[in-house]
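Structure (tokenized):
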């Protein structure tokens, strides 16, 4: 397993990490993803650790804390061997203080997460969404207090806009508070919006990307093909409306290219999609999920080899879309291109 620095921090993380939204799954979204109990989860953790995957990602909103509870049970007795990342800020109830990143909410959320996980510290705490109702200074001062108390070691964000991250980093620098080192983002061959704004920001400011849904919300598993009906067992029947949209024409153009590379390499479609991500700038770790041992072992096969330059170029071409304003001039006009060379 390869390990990379998480952004500009000193923390080393595996290039593949394990997402535990399938642990204790319940409800229309997380129940469709999976519902591994503690025994099943312990086996998946065993396989991950044997392969060198020691970073496990969860969130308080995953099945209303059940994911954290199951993960805590699965790592019991081996806390020193794992890195735990969890997230908070999304709504957990209808109360006035059940959502957001206020001092009240963050302190309570961390205490609850520590209890559910059976630990006294979090390796990485990420804000799951920007809270426009709470002053940035209040958020960062609270995170600083949690770090100083030893309850949190590193901080990051997820699903933030570029300006929200930059404002937060500026305030953190002004007061000497902990800077965000991680940005958990949606990024895949059928969802490359991360590249237009957040990737350049990550390069400039030293944020490492933790990639969620690297298989395009289950569309790049190799089970979806041009001219074929959606498989009966696909979770997309229940969850497609929850995830990032994608046009069929774009999806099948990418799937065709993936299948071509699969024939050349002898690798599976998801292994190729994951390996492509590992070649991208700023990516510290790609979060893989699995409902069972077979899925996990297949995803682990995405490391230990690399796509060729030509194969990457073919996938880049198939997945390319017209970039939005104000980024498109940099790609179309020579003068702008000299000032802002493309990252990828």
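Design, position by position:
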């Amino acid at each position: 397993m390869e390990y990379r620095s998480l952004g500009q921090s000193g923390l080393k993380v595996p290039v593949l990490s394990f997402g535990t939204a399938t642990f204790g799954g319940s409800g229309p979204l997380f129940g469709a993803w999976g519902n591994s109990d503690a025994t099943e989860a312990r086996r998946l953790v065993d396989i991950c650790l044997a392969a060198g995957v020691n970073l496990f990602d969860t969130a308080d909103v995953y099945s209303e804390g059940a994911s954290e509870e199951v993960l805590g049970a699965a790592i019991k007795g081996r806390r020193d061997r794992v890195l735990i990342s969890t997230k908070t800020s999304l709504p957990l109830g209808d109360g006035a203080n059940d959502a957001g990143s206020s001092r009240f909410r963050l302190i309570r959320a961390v205490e609850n997460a520590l209890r559910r996980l059976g630990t006294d510290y979090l390796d990485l705490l990420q804000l799951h969404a920007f809270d426009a109702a709470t002053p940035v200074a209040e958020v960062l001062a609270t995170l600083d207090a949690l770090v100083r108390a030893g309850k949190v070691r590193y901080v990051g964000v997820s699903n933030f806009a570029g300006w929200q991250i930059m404002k937060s980093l500026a305030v953190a620098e002004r007061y000497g508070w902990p800077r965000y080192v991680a940005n958990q983002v949606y990024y895949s061959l059928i969802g490359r919006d991360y590249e237009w704004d957040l990737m350049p920001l990550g390069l400039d400011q030293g944020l490492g990307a933790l990639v969620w849904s690297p298989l395009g919300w289950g569309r790049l598993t190799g089970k979806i093909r041009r001219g074929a009906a959606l498989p009966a067992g696909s979770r997309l029947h229940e969850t497609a409306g929850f995830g990032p949209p994608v046009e069929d024409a774009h999806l099948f153009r990418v799937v065709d290219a993936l299948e071509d590379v699969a024939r050349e390499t002898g690798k599976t479609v998801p292994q190729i999609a994951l390996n492509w991500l590992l070649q991208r700038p700023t990516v510290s770790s790609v979060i893989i999920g699995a409902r069972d041992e077979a899925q996990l072992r297949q995803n682990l096969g995405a490391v230990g080899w690399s796509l060729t330059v030509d194969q990457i170029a073919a996938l880049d071409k198939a997945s390319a879309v017209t970039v939005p304003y104000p980024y498109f001039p940099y790609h179309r006009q020579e003068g702008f291109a000299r000032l802002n060379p493309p990252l990828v």
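Reviewer-requested clarification: The chain has a mean pLDDT of 90. The first strand starts at residue 3 and ends at 5.
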